[in-house]
Amino acid sequence: MPASDSSTLPLVKFTNLTRANEIGANCYLLEFDGEARVILDAGMHPRKEGEEATPNLGLLGERPADALIVSHAHHDHIGALPLFLRRNEKMPVYLSEATSLLAEPLLHNSVEVMLKQRAQFGIASYPLFTHKEVDRSAKSYRICRAGQECSIAEDSDSNGRPLTFRFYPGGHILGAVGVRFRYGDRRILYSGDVSFQEQTIMPAADFPLDGIDTLIIEATRGAKETPDHQRRPMEVERLISAIEATFRRGGAVLIPVFALGKTQELLATIHLEQKAGRLRRCPITIGGLSRSFTQIYDRLAKRSFRRHPGLSLLEDVAPSVLDGRSVRQLSPRPGELYLISSGMMTERTLSNILAQRFLSDERHSIFIVGYCDPNSPAGQLLQTSRGNLVALDSEQPPQPLLCEVEQFDLTSHAIREDLLAYILRVNPRLCVLVHGDAPALAWFQERLREERPGLEVIVPPPGETLEL
Predict the structure, then answer these.
(1) Each residue of 189-222: pLDDT tens digit?
(2) What is the widest separation between alpha-carbon atoms in the chain?
(3) Could you give the angle at the alpha carbon of 389 between the alpha carbons of 385 and 391, nearest 5°?
(4) Most exposed residue of 21, 153, 281, 466, measured as fewest CB within 10 angstroms of its CB?
(5) CATH architecture designation of domain 228-407
């Protein structure tokens, strides 16, 4: 921990630009001594519509930000990026190479989704941005490598203190990073989304352990205990056994997945389990957006922070691709595996449409493997007992749930035990908790009070500016 007395540290202000403390959009503003202004992430809320899904851009005022830093390419961290660049086209956007490449298909897909929602639901404000604005956004990208000290501006600020930052691999998805800022004697780390456990493709995060006075860290899984017997290796073993059991009884398996991250992890996991003889070879189907992201994973296999650099997912696994037209004619076939987005089975997505063909057949299985909002269709499915009625689409009648439904914890977020251990190891003066719902934030506050009574812990209220 820095030796400087806190009274001599440069003043840093933090504004929470999100509209609520929850697992939704991510967007924050750091101001350094009233000079440099840096936006951290530009997320879109995955379950809200229109302006309510965006960060509160009005809080930025008239003065432009000096830079925007993106931690990774998930929609809730980058989905509103074109809106910020519409306000300030000259603002540089700093991100990893993988994030820059993954952003393009994600943001273009977001435009297509909003155009469909405008037609279906009459949302007049959609699309919030256009394909041209997505293409224009890429001109602002500035690629930074992990471990490289980068400067927000070429010159020092008026106080003579340069503002620099460095990326550290975050382990969450391809290209995910944490960001450490250096400003005078201040050392501030923003975690973004992080995983301290290795996944099949992604290694564990490689974050600094010393010299951090302020830690801004995600709290996604703060409300969920992870017993030792539910750690990833055991969950993978349990999933493979469940897939095999489904195939033996003549069924098919649907795994709703996020197109970015979860699809690629599962493709690699399934392939390696088949190669080791623990799972039979079987036809695998993914969605079109998943294929686009997987192409980038393959393209960067040998020059990115990932495991199994020699594994080409599209070539070695050779999945089939499902689109919006073919899904409506598809009937699940015995012994086949469908890794289809969206992960929470949002209405009218491919996984939701296909799931309705699984529900009434007791041979089939639907396995949930990632984060699941209780109010989402996937969340409702998990809460429905076998034999009862469930409605996955508000415009369709409920169906009897006869297929097997099970949940497996293959999270790409840090488990709360690892987050707590990291906070205690770093031992900052100040810990700012973000990206968590109320129970998650409360758990961290209580445990940190018990473990480190002298540590100041802040849950930043939306819309308020705090002095760090």
Answers:
(1) 999 999 999 999 999 999 999 999 999 999 999 9
(2) 71
(3) 110
(4) 281
(5) 3-Layer(aba) Sandwich (3.40)
